[in-house]
Amino acid sequence: MKRLSTFFIMWLCGAVAAAAPSHASDPLENLKKFSDFQKIDVKRLLEGEILSQRGPLMNFPNGISIQMSFYVPIPPDEVFKRQQTWDPTRCSSLKIYASSGLSRPCEPKEFKKLRFDPREHPVKWLLEKTLAAASGKADLNLTRSEAHELSACARNETSPDAISSCWAKLLFARATTFQLKGLGGILPYDTDEDFLYPAVQLRTMLQEQGKIIQEFAPLLQKTGMLGNDTEVSSLQPLYNWSFFDANHHATLNLGAVYKLAVGDHYQLLDIDYYASSTYYAAATLYEIWPIHDGKKTGSLVWRGDFLAAPTLRYTKGIERIAYGVIMIQEVKKEIRCFLDDIRTRP
Question: Quick check: is 140 in a domain?
């Protein structure tokens, strides 16, 4: 896949820098300027409704997006803290086997929670694909070198615990490189057609979101998302990894969360820069404003999700819209679990 031209990236950076959002504004009016929500019923939000919109169909064949707006009954700084300390494995409906933060520099022991249980059908699928990785037909996102190393490691000892250790070694190596080099350190996936770069997938999806890029320009520039692969983020992210069921396939990912204070509110960028299968990369943008409900300060949250996946390339029209509906349902499930956790664990 061709990289985005340097000229376009530099032009885009200049354009959005000139139109960066003001540090203090009316949250509802600001939301209308860049999002697909042109009418916001605050009463519905305060009553707990999660508003949603399917994003416009992208020209980028691998991409899909959705937008959410919801209310959280705690101030913005507390929302961020709770997001980072929330344990999603407690919500069984999310089908997350393990999830953990990573220190910087990360250590091999931080992947000890990774355990493969072959009684779980999605995990059995990953075990089989891991053993077949060296053939190049394993449906896994790997470099050719990683595929051979992973397959050789798994064949030396085929027990689930041994194979999980092989994957932990791979995740540790990728996480270490990302911590040192940022987006430019993300290794490509060796696909049947070409090398596929997760960072390019992320940038190409965002490229089509003019108003959103304008709104999040301060954050995206500081993370290097609007630069080139040689730029390293000037923000220190929080790192994480997860192991979960994605469309009946056990999937491993590596992520990073960036936070920027903009006046009285926050912008966040949460990226999955590596996924073992099912999808290529994902980005979630948040804007979190303080909003008052009587004497209590809560938060108005806008969330935009952008997903790049191989199956989307072969979907059009109604079928792609259906994928958007499913994506909305899954994200709403995650948001409800987070809100329930806040209510039950004050």
Answer: no
Residue 12 has a pLDDT of: 30
Mean pLDDT in order along the chain per 10 residues (346 residues): 30 34 67 90 92 90 95 94 93 96 96 95 94 76 92 88 96 97 92 86 93 94 78 84 95 97 94 96 97 88 96 84 92 96 86
Q: Which residue has the tokens 């960066």?
A: 20
The pLDDT assigned to 94 comes to 96
Residue 91: CATH number of its domain: 3.30.530.20
What are the angstrom distances between the C-alpha of 329 and each of 104, 184, 233, 336?
A: 34, 33, 32, 11
Is omega for the bond preceding 346 within 30 degrees of 0, making it cis? Answer: no
User: Which residues does residue 96 pair with via DSSP β-bridges, in sequence order?
Assistant: 244
What does the alpha-carbon distance between residue 327 and residue 315 come to, in Å, rounded to a whole number? Answer: 14
The confidence score (pLDDT) of residue 65 equals: 96
Residue 190 lies in a domain: no
State the residue range of the domain holding 280: 26-103+195-344
Alpha-carbon Rg for the chain, nearest whole angstrom, is: 20
Joined tokens for residue 235: 């923000």
Closest CA to 237 of 198, 185, 179: 179
Nearest alpha carbon to residue 182 among 143, 228, 132: 228
At residue 21, the pLDDT reads 42
What strands, in cross-sheet order, belong to the sheet with 63-72? Answer: 51-54, 63-72, 296-308, 281-293, 265-275, 249-262, 238-246, 96-102
Q: What is the DSSP letter of 341?
A: H
pTM beyond 0.85: the answer is: yes
In whole angstroms, give the CA distance from residue 326 to residue 68. 14
Domain count, the chain: 1
Considering the domain boundaries, does residue 184 fall inside one?
no
What the block records as the tokens of 216 is: 């999040």
The token pair at 206 is 């965002």
Confidence at residue 158, expressed as pLDDT on a 0 to 100 scale: 86
Q: Indicate whether 240 belongs to any domain.
A: yes
